[in-house]
Specification:
The chain is an alpha+beta fold and 323 residues long. It folds into 2 domains: 2-170, no CATH class; 177-313, Cyclophilin. It contains 4 helices and 20 strands. The protein has helices at 35-44, 193-201, 282-286, 301-322; strands at 2-7, 12-15, 53-57, 62-65, 69-77, 80-82, 85-86, 93-95, 100-103, 108-116, 150-152, 177-184, 204-210, 214-218, 239-244, 249-251, 259-261, 268-271, 273-277, 293-298. The protein has a 7-stranded mixed β-barrel with strand order 12-19-16-17-14-13-20. The longest helix has 22 residues, at 301-322. The two termini are 25 Å apart.
Length: 323
């Protein structure tokens, strides 16, 4: 059983929930940028949550199925079509051998997730099937899909006997104006009081430079302290002696255009991290499209842990609804 990639879309990769445990040796977790949407897609078709699916940025692919399968499409607002006929998102549906799956235009969000019963059965690399493009690791040949590729599909998961649908109240909103919660630090002390206020009071616009490595925002210039740089740091006030980068950390090279590092980011370097996005809001960052307006809202650790707990409760509700 397999899937022919007739058209790959703009950037389509095989992703699962990621490979944990190798960031200290420079290999990022990778995995779906919007984890909730991939988990939902897998549950809709009867797969384990960790099964591999497809992540598609800004444009859907054109796929031809060699065998019957059950599909689900979640994440960004695209219209899935089977042989030109519209099918619903966030709902499982069947395809037959020879069916062609395409997608309409993007109407909201940024990243689409496709799960197929059985999962995309590429080999595991370091415990994950996720694609890490910079390292040519995982996925299909370690790269985004190309026209003519053949995707293997597993046969060890039975499709659900009935159509499943994610309840409307559990489907994430896809706003063009976002409030993203952050914990300030570890290096926000390198901002002046004015620079810190500017960071938190500015409405930042997401630039087209927004991919699996990082999301770059445009707005005001941040004022940083004048200081004597420590030995081993660069000459810019935003430089530090090299330090590890958490996923979600925000750096501001030169004090301009903050960058939120995402799941394919390098593991460390010499830029100050002035804040870190809470884990519960990383899916929302992933679904930001260029031009989206974003405010960064400071929270403390207790609030961040509460946000994570609420997200886990929402995942539990999703599992209850679909299993």
């Amino acid at each position: 059983m397999g899937i022919e990639v007739r058209k790959p879309g703009l950037s389509t990769t095989v992703q699962d929930l990621g490979r944990e445990g190798y960031y200290h040796v420079g290999i990022p977790p990778s995995g779906a940028l919007d984890l909730f949407s991939l988990i939902a897609a897998n549950l809709l078709v009867g797969n384990p949550e960790r099964a591999a699916g497809l992540e598609c940025a800004y444009m859907g692919p054109e796929l031809v199925f060699s065998d019957p399968a059950t599909l689900a499409v979640t994440g960004a607002e695209f219209e899935p079509r089977v042989n030109g006929r519209a099918r619903p998102g966030w709902t499982s549906f069947d395809v037959e051998a020879g069916d062609v799956v395409t997608f309409g235009h993007l109407k909201g969000g940024a990243r689409l997730y496709i799960a197929v019963s059985g999962g995309i059965d590429v080999p595991e690399k370091l415990g994950s099937r996720s694609t890490y493009g910079l390292g040519a690791l995982g996925g299909l040949h370690g790269r985004p899909l190309e026209a003519g590729d053949e995707l293997p599909v597993g046969s060890d998961a039975a499709a659900p006997a009935r159509e499943r649908s994610v309840p409307g109240e559990l489907r994430p909103a896809l706003p063009r104006e976002l409030e993203i919660r952050v914990i300030m630090g570890l290096y926000d002390h390198l901002l002046t009081d004015r620079g810190r206020s500017t960071f938190l009071e500015t409405t930042w616009k997401l630039t087209p430079v927004a991919d699996r490595i990082g999301f770059r925002y445009k707005g005001e210039k941040l004022e940083m302290l004048e200081r004597e740089q420590p030995f081993g740091a660069g000459s810019d006030p935003s430089n530090i002696v090299d330090a590890p980068y958490p996923v979600g950390s925000i750096q501001v090279p030169g004090g301009v255009e903050p960058i939120v590092l995402h799941r394919d980011a390098v593991s460390g370097g010499g830029y100050a991290m002035i804040a870190t996005v809470v884990s519960a809001d990383m899916d929302a960052v992933a679904q930001s499209a260029p031009g989206s307006q974003t405010r960064f809202l400071p929270v403390d650790l207790d609030q961040a842990l509460t946000a994570r707990r609420e997200r886990n409760e929402r995942l539990a509700q999703l599992r209850d609804a679909l299993t």
